[in-house]
Amino acid sequence: VINRDDLANVAAAVQPSVVSIRTDSNEGSGVVYDSKGNIVTNNHVVAAAEGGTVTVIFSDGKKVDASIVGTDRRTDLAVVKVSDPAGLKPAKFGDSGSMRIGDTVLALGSPLGLKGTVTSGIISALDRAIQLNDEERPFWRRSAASISGLLQTDAPINPGNSGGPLVNTKGEVIGINTAIASATGGNIGV
């Protein structure tokens, strides 16, 4: 049985590790991976960054520039790095393979530019696959990429949550919020 007060403690413990990420044309979220300044986010959050530079905004409001270390379109993951890692609080990473349908999770990030947002839900399904369209190419050269092995959650996720962490009740990152499915304005997060 999950005590709702415990979720507030989990959120408070994780929030210092969650960042907002902005580029010239996009915004999203990220999570501090290590004390060396590496931050995990989604590829689609940073892929169109001019000059490979993004702005990272920490939970305390501090803004710094970061460089893109690497991206992987196939998994929709990316790593950016800040040059001054002083004071970073790395998140704890857990085992997504140990999650079960019905487990409680929290999604953290900056949906719609609202930094420090936390939503809760459950794991709705395991091993989901989704199609991602390549919007950056002319329509005659687009290809649908598939990502599989995803966790589906009913925790509300909106534009800007992309790249932020999905955490278990121990405060461990068990996923990176990647996409929503929306036919009626509601959403299903993966």
Description:
The structure is a single chain. It is built from two helices and 14 strands, in the order H-E-E-E-H-E-E-E-E-E-E-E-E-E-E-E. The chain is globular, with a radius of gyration of 16 Å. With 190 residues, the chain is mainly β.
What is the count of β-strands? 14
Helix content: under 10%
- Poorly predicted segments: 136-143
**Whole-number mean pLDDT:** 88
Q: What general form does the structure show?
A: globular
Rg over CA atoms, rounded to whole Å, is 16 Å
Number of distinct helices: 2
- Helix-strand string: HEEEHEEEEEEEEEEE
* Percentage of residues in strands: 35-45%
- Spatial arrangement of strands, main beta sheet: 1-2-3-6-5-4
Q: Tell me the structural class.
A: mainly beta
Distance between the termini: 24 Å
Largest pleated sheet: 6 strands, antiparallel, barrel
